[in-house]
Structure formats: structure tokens, C-alpha cells
Design brief:
- The chain has 323 residues and is an alpha+beta fold.
- It folds into two domains: 165 residues, Gcn5-related N-acetyltransferase (GNAT) (Aminopeptidase); 145 residues, Aminopeptidase.
- Helix content is 29%, strand content 32%.
- The protein has nine helices and 16 strands.
- A hairpin with a 5-residue loop joins β2 and β3.
- It is globular and about 70 Å long.
Amino acid sequence: MTSFQFRAYRHGDEVLINQGFNEAFNLDRAVEEWRWKFVSPAGDPWIIVAVDQNNEIVAQYAAIEAGFHINDQIFRAAQPVDVFCLRRPGTLEQEVHLTSVRTFFRTYGGVDQLALLYGFPGKRALRLGQLELGYGEASPVPIWQFPLARFTWPFKRSPSHYEIRNGCQPQELDALWQRCAQRYPVAVVRNGNWLIRRYVSRPYHAYQFLTVWQAGKMAAWAVWKITGDTLQWIDLLWDGEDLRVLAAIQKKLEHLGRRVKVQQLEIWVSGDALLTEFLSTNGWKLEEHPHGLTAVARSFHPDIDGSDVIRQFYFTLGDMDLV
């Protein structure tokens, strides 16, 4: 019978991990993208691997650390990503995947390590997690789409109360997060470190940034990119003081989308009632996720209820766009 060793990541594992990931997901990801995800000056990555008798890494359970804002407290949380189990002799019969997950939970789950795991599984993974792994209640991932007309009548531009600028500096996002954090009872911290870590430093991806200003104060920050025939509104942080800020962003994204001839705008978002109201009353259509993705959490902290977290969780495509 094939035997497997379950252990924490060791320096140099990334080559075999990346090979296994590419095989499992039929991709050709470069090791540089793996390093962007997992290498951190704070310490070793949160990874458990399963190794067979030939020293091949046949399974992985890994997570990316994130600061998690819950009711004005910051907890260390992580999002599972790149989870795989290769089809090798014994991996199914010996439940290698489940064992790798449970080993991760025992090794890293706890008040002093990872207080919470959160993620966006499909239906099959969610069912397994709720039956076997202590996942809490789940919330569907909403997708809002706005069709772009091919032709529009010329119109006279009305004066705007807001100035829209391209780009964003980390210290500007730091200041906006300090002003906005109380709007989001539960959210991943979106500050200058998030800007650099999540977007600016990512290889092979071209994210664009907009900021909205009034009277020298930044009221909103948005991230977008073009994917196929869609302009995706990836992320948003705003102060919630005036819905015209959202209208100004939408107007700018419509202009950008028509200029590159995409067919629609799209935003994945939950946990912001004002934003949802704006979308529902300004021509956006709510769609189900085509793969049935849901948001779910698994708590290792006695004061955190995973189901309560998900009910209030503010998330966007920026929390999911990691493959």
C-alpha cells in the first residue's frame, strides 16, 4: 500500500507544488505567480502538502493570509487557494485530500495562528466542507451586469461635483480605509498594503485604478480590468456619503468600456446595502454565478462565529480573482 507523509511547506517545495497545480487545473502558471501568492516577509506560507514514497507532492492545502476586520477588531485570517489532490495510486482510497485539510486545521487553526478561514467554494466543495470540515452557513456570490449599448446619442456633459483620477498611492488608500472601515462590519482590510500586495505586485495582470475626489478628500477607490468582452469592476472602497460617487465611477467605466468595445460592465459584490441599492436602481441586472460559488467561513476562534461572519461579509471580485 502506498504511504503518504503530511507536512508543512519546506523551502524549495514550490517547484513541485506548482507542477502539481498546473496538472490539476490544466494550466501553465509560472513559479513567479506562486511566489506572488505565497512568499511573505512575515514568515513561511500557510501550506500543508502530502508527499508519496517517491517524494512527489500529490496534494496541497494552502491559504493566503489576510487581515480581517470584524467589528473594529483585526484578526489574522486566510483564504484557501490552489487546493489540489492529484490522481495517484492510493490518493482516493486513503482520503489524502481530507487528511491534508485536517492536518492544516490542526497545524495552523487557532487563536494565536489563523483565527478564521474564508473562501468561495463551488457546490461540491461546499457540501464536503459542511459535512466533514466544520464550514458554517454559506452565502451566494452575486454578479451584477450592466449592458453597454453599441451606439449612444451625443449628450452635453453636466458638471460633476467630483474629480476622477487614475492611479492610487498606498498612503491615500490608508487614509480612505481609516475613514471607511466602520462602514464594513466584516471585510478584508483594504489599505495601502492590500493595494501593493493584492494588485500592484501581481505579475502578468494589468489592473487599473480610479479614485474619486471632492474638495481635496478621496471619497472612493475602484479597481478594474478588461476580461474578454467584459470590463470587470474588481474592487471598491468608498465612504458611503453620496451615491453620486458611484454614479461617477459607473459613468467613467462606461466610457472606458465603450472605448475598448466591450459588451458589458460586471461587478461581483455583497455586504454593502447602499451599493446594492444603487446597482438595482441604475440599470444593473443581478445574475447567479455560473458555477454556483458561495462565500463561507470556518472559525478557529471562540469569539468568532463563521456563519455570522458570512452574513455580514463585504466582498468583491477582488477577494476571489486569484487564479
